[in-house]
Design goal:
CATH topology of the largest domain in chain B: Rossmann fold
Structural class of chain B: alpha/beta
Oligomer: heterodimer
Distance between the termini of chain A: 25 Å
CATH class of the largest domain in chain A: Alpha Beta
CATH architecture of the largest domain in chain A: 2-Layer Sandwich
Number of domains of chain B: 3
Number of helices of chain B: 22
CATH superfamily of the largest domain in chain B: Thiamin diphosphate (ThDP)-binding fold, Pyr/PP domains
CATH class of the largest domain in chain B: Alpha Beta
CATH superfamily of the largest domain in chain A: ACT domain
Order of helices and strands of chain A: EHEEHEEHEEHEE
Number of helices of chain A: 4
Number of strands of chain B: 20
CATH topology of the largest domain in chain A: Alpha-Beta Plaits
Radius of gyration of chain A: 19 Å
């Protein structure tokens, strides 16, 4: 079954590691929907969150290939695990007319979206939440006239303590 | 010490005795250190691709890491084919390239190419050394990564300023710390037990083994397992030599040009025990048609290979040698049953055969059959890629691992001669024979000079049919004999569609390979008739130094058996 998977890759913070991860996926013909790489609490470690839409077989192969990279410490497919907190962030610019503004602000309140810049003809706002909530918000504000938005892509954190580095690395 | 001195010291500590390579501007500092280094032999090839394949041949024939050293830019890009060849066949090499100074990286400087970017998808791991302080660790890691786990090529790119930079307090690390790299060793006991149980219940078990057996040094264990269980075995191109060709349980190489018995056994088996193989499409045919009746067990050190191409029922991640030992301890002895009899019947019923025209023309297979009489069990046979490669795989009489070297995964024409050269340098007391075609030999023919000048005694056999034979075979069988651009006599003056030789053809064989050999200061012999074959082999193989033996063989001989691309293994063409 083809569905979206969010995969968190913990890697050593080495030269070109993001290119290794993204290159590996494109090299094997998989499409990346989103990819974020950022430093973590450990300066030696970098976390890459990626979203791919593939069949279960392909996801298994992606995970194994990612694990094979020398710099990869851990790969977690969190798509089917509810003990993960998954978030996404969006900045969105809307065209807004005088008459719509109150409605829009009401909607923003419901979604807990923050206004960042309010002008006579547009509003820029930010929102963090589950990817589903972000999708829903975009859907709701679309009638106002979206000028531009940028999404961060998904990132996630486990609620529990993860196993130590290197464990489970080889699928045994 | 500076970076160059640290590099050479590190190589010595890793046991490197030979480097293949080619100098250039940014690697002068390293070559300068090598110039006065006694313990490492440097072999100057005539092309960087030759150096890479030579390092690969050195590695395949010894199991040790092969090393090549080349310059930036074109030097680096010339190694790409060699690196990819080593990657696809899991051969441990370390490729050290020079790079422009760190301050010039990214400016499109003279002879700058992004080596790390270029090699990312074709090597096991790669490094750009940005700080001389990292160099000792990187050398240590590179060799460790290349030779452990599933072996493979590692590239180290060293900018010229790093090679020149001084490092105080140099010490070579004793160990590596790679939290993301833990090659598997022992197989899961429960899974091994499951496999042993499956074997106890199987009526038609079959072993399918490959290059992983040789990499792991698991040949003895494999033979012990076969001894205890009498399971018939098929061996891939990469694994040839791990089971002696005349072993009663050996059914031959399977796949597109596999032996009939081997393919029939794959189709019919009810338990397939795959060890150190990767279910390559040249073996399986369409994946959904492969071993459909069998429970599939797959033992491999690389978890990513398990289930990649064929659904696996019993996956076992581990080193082939260790897991086979575990399996030997757990399996019950098994004696031959009707399945063994059937496989033996197939072997007898479908022997290798080719049609001799009865005249004095030379069948390429005949040359290899005769060669078998002139080599010994210790001889190393290195092939190039094409028809002659398949005939070699089918007709050579291999008895030991690391004695049959061939570019399997990438199928690199031009591999043969330089790889044979590397193998000969690594095994100075061993007879090394390179079997090539008239196409392949010309792809790295410049290395004849390297062999001649260094007295590297490679015995080169060229089966000359004046065709790019393997492609011609496909055109013959599947493209209505439209021999588009496979005739090596063809020139732009030829008619668009050629219907066979005419009086206007250019001289039949160009270049004259015997003259090429002689021009390179080595002996050259030629056989045009069957009667001359033995004589040429005898004279050529008796030469002390390198030699080239050319055999004019039947132009349109095809390799059989054959399974067409896209057809299942059950659908074999036998030829005449």
């Amino acid at each position: 079954m083809v569905e979206k998977h969010t995969i968190i890759v913990t890697v050593l913070n080495s030269i070109g590691v993001l290119a290794r991860v993204s290159g590996l996926l494109s090299q094997r013909g998989y499409n990346i929907e989103s990819i974020i790489g950022a430093p973590t609490e450990d300066p030696n470690v970098y976390k890459i969150s990626l979203v791919v839409e593939e069949s279960d077989e392909h996801i298994e192969q992606i995970i194994k290939q990612l694990n094979k990279l020398i710099d990869t410490v851990r790969v977690m497919d969190i798509s089917h695990k509810d003990n993960y907190i998954v978030r996404e962030y969006i900045i969105l610019k809307l065209e807004v007319k005088e008459k719509n503004r109150t409605d829009l602000f009401h909607l923003m309140q419901v979604f807990k979206a923050n206004p960042i810049d309010v002008a006579t003809d547009h509003v820029i706002m930010e929102l963090a939440g589950t990817p589903r909530k972000i999708d829903r918000f975009i859907e709701m504000v679309r009638p106002y006239g979206i000028q531009e938005y940028i999404r961060s892509g998904e990132f996630a954190m486990a609620e529990y303590q993860l196993p130590k580095k290197g464990e489970n690395k080889n699928g045994d | 010490m500076n970076g160059a001195e640290i590099l050479i010291d590190g190589l010595k500590r890793e046991g490197v005795d030979t480097i293949f390579g080619y100098p250039g501007g940014v690697v002068i500092p390293i070559f300068d250190v090598l110039y006065s280094t006694k313990d490492i032999k440097f072999l100057l090839t005539r092309h960087e691709q030759g150096a890479t394949h030579a390092a690969d041949g050195y590695a395949r024939s010894t199991g040790k890491v092969g090393v090549c050293l080349i310059t930036s830019g074109p030097g680096a890009t010339n190694t790409i084919t060699g690196i990819a060849t080593a990657k696809l066949d899991s051969s441990p090499i370390v490729v050290i390239s020079g790079q422009v100074a760190t301050g010039n990286i990214g400016t499109d400087a003279f002879q700058e190419t992004d080596m790390v970017g270029l090699t990312r998808s074709i090597c096991k791991h790669n490094y750009l050394v940005k700080d001389v302080g990292d160099l000792p660790r990187i050398i240590k890691e590179a060799f460790y990564i290349a030779r452990t786990g599933r072996p493979g090529p590692v590239s180290i790119d060293i900018p010229v300023d790093v090679a020149n930079a001084k490092l105080k307090n140099y010490s070579y690390p004793e160990t590596v710390s790679l939290p993301g790299y833990k090659p598997a060793n022992k197989g899961n006991n429960g899974q091994v037990k499951k496999l042993a149980d499956a074997l106890a219940h199987a009526q038609k078990p079959l072993l399918y083994t490959g290059g992983g057996i040789i990499s792991a040094g698991a040949t003895d264990k494999l033979l012990q397992l076969i001894d205890k269980t009498q399971i018939p075995v098929v061996v891939t191109l990469m694994g040839l030599g791990s089971v002696p060709f005349d072993h009663p349980c050996f059914l031959g190489m399977p796949g597109m040009h596999g032996r009939v018995a081997a393919n029939k056994a794959l189709v019919d088996c009810d338990l397939l025990i795959a060890v150190g193989v990767r279910f390559d499409d040249r073996i399986t045919g369409p994946r959904h048609t492969f071993a459909t009746q069998a429970t599939v067990a797959h033992i491999d050190i690389d978890p990513a290979e398990i289930g990649k191409n064929v659904k696996t029922d019993i996956p076992i991640v581990g080193d082939a040698k260790t897991v086979l030992q575990q399996l030997i301890e757990k399996v019950n002895p098994r004696s031959k049953n009707s399945w063994n009899e059937r496989t033996e019947f197939w072997k007898e019923k479908y022997p290798l055969s080719y049609k001799n025209n009865g005249n004095d023309s030379v069948n390429p297979q005949y040359v290899i059959e005769r060669l078998n009489e002139f080599v010994n069990d210790d001889s190393i046979i290195v092939t190039d890629v094409g028809q002659h490669q398949m005939w070699s795989a089918l007709y050579c009489q291999y008895r030991h691992p690391r004695k049959f070297l061939s570019s399997g995964g990438l199928g690199t024409m031009g591999f043969g001669l330089p790889a044979a050269m590397g193998a000969a340098v690594a095994n100075p007391d061993t007879q090394v024979v390179c079997i090539s075609g008239d196409g392949g030999i010309q792809m790295n023919i410049q290395e004849l000079a390297t062999c001649a000048i260094n007295r590297i005694p490679v015995k080169v056999i060229v089966l000359n049919n004046a065709f790019l034979g393997m492609v011609r075979q496909w055109q013959d069988l599947f493209w209505d004999k439209r021999y588009a651009q496979v005739c090596l006599q063809r020139g732009t003056d030829c008619p668009d569609e050629c219907h066979g030789p005419s009086g206007n053809c250019p001289p039949q064989y160009l270049p004259d390979l015997v003259k090429v050999a002689e021009a390179n200061g080595m002996a050259g012999y030629r056989a045009k008739t069957k009667a001359e074959v033995d004589e040429v082999l005898k004279k050529g193989l008796a030469e002390e130094g390198p030699v080239l033996m050319e055999f004019f063989v039947n132009r349109e001989e095809n390799v059989f058996p054959m399974v067409s691309a896209g057809k299942p293994l059950s659908d074999m063409m036998m030829g005449d």
